[in-house]
Predict the structure.
Amino acid sequence: MSARRIPARRIPARRIPARLRRSALPAMLLVAAMAALIAAPAPPAVAAPPRASFTQIESDLMCVACHESLAVAQSPEAMSERQYVRTLIAQGLDRHQIENEMVQSYGPAVLALPPAHGFNVLVYIIPPLVLAFGIATVVFTLPRWRRRSRAAAAEPAHSPAPLDPADAQRLDEDLGRFA
């Protein structure tokens, strides 16, 4: 049995609206251009390594002598550290490499933030936990306080006990002297 080929139906041009005939050419050109872009081999990406910013690095480091940010410290040690950072930037090192070099030269005290491993992890964990505990405490105790204040407002006010007649007379005499 042979497969019969069904001829494709061609729609006469006069049946296609004029606005569709005019917009077909730009659409076909756009599709052809996109296909060419997809099929064209991309040039190898030669990305320059991210350049370190002195001001950013300066704010991430501390002066080991005066324990201030390197951005504000004015000690001779801070000047020496700044100069070392400038030479590392001139060598083309990125931010993380410069921080590693500074730690090797000056120790971990040179970092503004402690490294996030070992015991130092607590510096990053404890403050959010304390904040969450404080928020939870307020969320749970505030409704109780409001209920207590509403209950206290709903209770009738207690009238003071009546004064003893002798005390009332003495009070009247004392007030009479001052009036």
In short: The longest helix spans residues 121-154. The CA atoms of residues 64 and 107 lie 9 Å apart.
